Amino acid sequence: MLALSSGPIVHGPVDAPTRTAAIENFRTRLIRANWADAALADGYRYLLTSEQGLKCKVTMRDTGRDILGTPCIDVTFMSDDEARVGPAHYLKVGSGWEYQIVCTPAQAFISVLAVVNERGSGTSVAGGIAYAGGTAQLTVGTGICGTNGTDVLWAGGAMFDASWAGKTIDIAGVTYTIFLVDSGWELHLTTSAGVQGGVPFTVPSPLVAPASGPCAYDRGSAADVAEDWWSYGDTFGVYGYATYWHPSFRTGWSNTGGGQYAGCYNGDLLIDPANGLGCTRLAPFKLPGRWTAPVTRLASGQPLYLPPWLVWGSGVGGGQTIGRLRGLIWDAVWVTEDRPLDQVDLFDDEDWVNFSHYLPGGAGGTFYGCLYLRRTISAANARAKVSGYAY
To answer: Of 27-36, 125-134, 338-347, which gets the smallest average pLDDT?
Structure first.
């Protein structure tokens, strides 16, 4: 499933010779994408609304920030009521600086053409509202089995795996806990499943869906279930620029301490030096505890084109919370091979541009593949996409 909006989709260059000019030039693009603007003393505040009715706000301001002698503007995402505020991402400005932007009513991706954003570069910011995909979840394995008390025998589908020990398994609609996996054909439960034959089983991934609402929050606040906003990019926080340089979607993200600081959800900064369960990531291309994800291809060697799920935990308790599927990036697709940065390809008679790029051995090189953004809507696809998504 891809989350395809009905637009408008606005893309093009944005000159940034000074702070004031950059803010005004970005505004020209953003209001064309139906971002509702309100003037501030030092910039603008924008209201974003997705086709599902979810909202968030963004400010783009001249706070007078200079980083290592280079002037910058601040870009900050926040909740609609401004109670939960994300980190201040920054974009450098000056003579010769020019950005490219791809934005819709629900999101924006901003970057300097051909510049790979690694750490501390101040050359890209992405964020907005995700498509809230209900309660769908990734799975580790599905198939058919038979049960006799706590014994479970494989009968078809995914073979049992030793890594499933301790995980939950759904058998005929009832959830059990796996005690031990003897082989690909037999495992044992902690409690009896009775005697059954030819029944379906599912072993869910540790990346599970929200419990309820568009984006259920781990803290369970009623105010949070109506939000599904995110942001990513370089930050300049309380720890200082020289120590905390953070990569963005342009090249991925570090899975080490401090590398998660750029991810936010409802203003809850997600720092997780252990295994990244609380950080924002794309799934299933980077799983908790892995530095690089395996390459997934068709037997012919061709790449897969997959939905770009966003995953993050609440960050409560130092970030050690389960990473939940929060939604899809609108008008985007994940391609499981590396392609040149900013390359434009034609998919389904529409222009799509490669926003991300794998950086082998670099601080941001933690996934293999690229995130393509939709830049145009073909006449055929412009037909009544009132649902806001397509399979």
So the answer is: 125-134
Find all residues with CB under 8 Å of 131, minimum gap 6, and list them. 3, 50, 52, 228, 327, 328, 329, 330, 388, 389
Q: How far apart are CA 117 and CA 96, in angstroms?
A: 18
Rounded to whole angstroms, how far apart are CA atoms 119 and 89?
Answer: 12
223 vs 201, more confident: 201
One-letter amino acid for residue 163 of the chain: S
Q: For 217-222, what is the mean pLDDT?
A: 40
Beta-sheet strand order (sheet of 229-233): 10-15, 98-104, 107-112, 124-129, 229-233, 264-265, 268-269
Instruction: Please report where in the chains the tokens 């260059």 appear, as a residue.
Output: 13
Res 324: pLDDT? 62
pLDDT digits (tens, 9 = 90+) for 259-317: 333 343 433 433 333 334 445 556 544 444 444 445 567 778 788 888 887 766 555 54
Count of domains observed in the chain: 2
Spatial distance between the Cα atoms of 370 and 305, rounded to a whole number of angstroms:
10
* Element housing 104 (H / E): strand 98-104
In a domain, 219, yes or no: yes
Is residue 68 exposed (0-12), middle (13-18) or buried (19+ Cβ within 10 Å)?
exposed
The answer to whether residues 275 and 162 belong to one domain is no
Residue 199, token pair as written in the block: 């029944």
- Whether 155 is in a domain gets the answer yes
Extract the tokens encoding 9.
């989709």
- Tell me 215's DSSP state: T
Residue that has been written with the tokens 């495992």 in this structure? 187
**Residues contacting residue 244 through CB under 8 Å, at least 6 positions apart:** 235, 237, 258, 261
* Separation between Cα atoms, residue 58 and residue 46, nearest integer Å: 5
3-state DSSP of 34-91: CCEEEEECCEEEEEEECCCCCEEEEEEECCCCEECCEEEEEEEEECCCCCCEEEEEEE
Distance CA 273, CA 259 (A): 8
CA distance 264 to 130: 13
Asked if 30 and 124 sit in the same domain, the reply is yes
pLDDT at 191 over 90: yes
Residues 330-342 have pLDDT tens digits of 999 888 777 888 8
Range of the domain at 64: 10-134+213-374
What pLDDT is recorded for position 102?
97
